[in-house]
């Protein structure tokens, strides 16, 4: 992100009643259902069931699609809540639906639920029940109306967070008074790659072959440079509809790769928004017949990897004299480089090679306007003497709850020894 702006007032995720005229992202928009129609009557099918069709204003509307797009608000107060959680790999998103008796405005109004953790790699078969705790609500861009997406975290029946529940630990850090007083802002740049379904090769690439070298694809336009723009744009609008604080999108350096930015968001909200946006992207690529991957280096060789650069600032960094606070934060980050790298995404060593706008995974560095460093500080931040830093180390598959809370912990709560601080300051001075 170019800069961190003032955050929204969304301190707690809420949903207001949407009007009956609110229009969801329909199946027709995605083009997910194409059936040949008989001009003289009902559609014919070689299977045992038939899909009827009617004529309306000069075009044929499929009955199944009509049911998918039904607006329920004039007929019932009941809504559909899609409960979403993170699966056993720590990257996959899972979800299931339930009926709620009336529209809700806060997660506390929703019941807890459970799922079979033995089927997601999160519990043994003999004791497989895992409990979902609703934590954040977003409008559902697929069903529309008052229907909602619900970001949940997972607990044992005894109320203990399961190992893959990283939100619980993050929430503890963000509830610390020192952290609250510093109002940490995050702007997260989520990169992702689109793959062809059957061959798992990037979208737009010749099967088994390669496109021209990198150069014309970044923020490019044209059929020979941009592959998957409809998916990126559909995702952009769906996120805005949902209430996700998405702030932009662009084509990336490697063809078939895209990026969107979420933020600025305050505290735990950053992780909730990223996970909700990932779920929506998975649903859109599902309907488009394209595979989404968050692999940090989907194609080996002279091609850019995929990161999740995290822009970060505190109240003290944004005030006069903030550049010195930023330097102190960078010093702390240098001393915990190994801890951060170990938590910044699986397979990140294939991406952080010192090439393709990355720093080496084994070396901590920082610089002004240098995209080959671990931490980049913008020219404007240096000029104004305040602003934010960009942590360029996180991989595209990182857990945003871990990364955001770890940044807050290292820069606001963790105190190095005087000896370690002095040694790190000397090394950083040589680095700059």
From TrEMBL:
Q: Which organism is it from?
A: Crataegus crus-galli (cockspur hawthorn)
Which SMART domains has this protein been placed in? Gln-synt_C
Which SUPFAM superfamilies has this protein been placed in?
Glutamine synthetase, N-terminal domain (SSF54368), Glutamine synthetase/guanido kinase (SSF55931)
Name one cellular component (GO) term.
chloroplast
Q: Which reaction does it catalyse?
A: L-glutamate + NH4(+) + ATP = L-glutamine + ADP + phosphate + H(+)
Source organism superkingdom = Eukaryota
Pinpoint the GS catalytic domain residues. Answer: 163-432
* Record-linked Pfam families: Gln-synt_C (PF00120), Gln-synt_N (PF03951)
Which family, according to UniProt? Belongs to the glutamine synthetase family.
Reply yes or no: does the keyword NADP apply: no
Q: What is its EC number?
A: 6.3.1.2
- Name of the protein in its database record: Glutamine synthetase
Keyword Chloroplast recorded = yes
């Amino acid at each position: 992100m170019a800069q961190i702006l003032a955050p929204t007032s969304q301190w707690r995720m809420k949903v207001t009643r949407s009007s009956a005229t609110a229009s969801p992202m329909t199946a027709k928009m995605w083009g997910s259902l194409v059936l040949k129609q008989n001009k003289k009557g009902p559609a014919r099918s070689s299977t045992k069931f038939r899909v009827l069709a009617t004529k309306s204003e000069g075009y044929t509307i499929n009955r199944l699609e009509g049911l998918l797009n039904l607006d329920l608000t004039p007929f019932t107060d009941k809504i559909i809540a899609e409960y979403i959680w993170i699966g056993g790999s720590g990257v996959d998103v899972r979800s299931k639906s339930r009926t709620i008796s009336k529209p809700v405005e806060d997660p506390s109004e929703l019941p807890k639920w459970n799922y079979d953790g033995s089927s997601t790699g999160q519990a043994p078969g003999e004791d497989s029940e895992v409990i979902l705790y609703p934590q954040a609500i977003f409008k559902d861009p697929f069903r529309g109306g008052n229907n909602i997406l619900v970001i949940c975290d997972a607990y044992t029946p005894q109320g203990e967070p399961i190992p893959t529940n990283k939100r619980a630990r993050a929430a503890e850090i963000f509830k610390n008074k020192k952290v609250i007083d510093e109002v940490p802002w995050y702007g997260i740049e989520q990169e992702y790659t689109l793959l062809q379904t059957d061959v798992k090769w990037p979208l737009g690439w010749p099967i088994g072959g390669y496109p021209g070298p990198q150069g014309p694809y970044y923020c490019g336009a044209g059929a020979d440079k941009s592959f998957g723009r409809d998916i990126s744009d559909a995702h952009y609008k769906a996120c805005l509809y949902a209430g996700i604080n998405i702030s932009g999108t662009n084509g990336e350096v490697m063809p078939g790769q895209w990026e969107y930015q979420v933020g600025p968001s305050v505290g735990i909200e950053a992780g909730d928004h990223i996970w909700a946006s990932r779920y929506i992207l998975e649903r859109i690529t599902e309907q488009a017949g394209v595979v989404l991957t968050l692999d940090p280096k989907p194609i080996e060789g002279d091609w850019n990897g995929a990161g999740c650069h995290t822009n970060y600032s505190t109240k003290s960094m944004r005030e006069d004299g903030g550049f010195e606070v930023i330097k102190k934060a960078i010093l702390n980050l240098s001393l915990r480089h190994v801890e951060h790298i170990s938590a910044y995404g699986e397979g990140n060593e294939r991406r952080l090679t010192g090439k393709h706008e990355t720093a080496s995974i084994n070396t901590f560095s920082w610089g002004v306007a240098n995209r080959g460093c671990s931490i980049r500080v913008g020219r404007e931040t240096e000029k104004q003497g305040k602003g934010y830093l960009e942590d360029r180390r996180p991989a595209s598959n990182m857990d945003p709850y871990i990364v955001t809370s770890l940044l807050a912990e290292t820069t606001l709560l963790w105190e190095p020894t005087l000896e370690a601080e002095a040694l790190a300051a000397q090394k950083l001075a040589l680095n700059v």
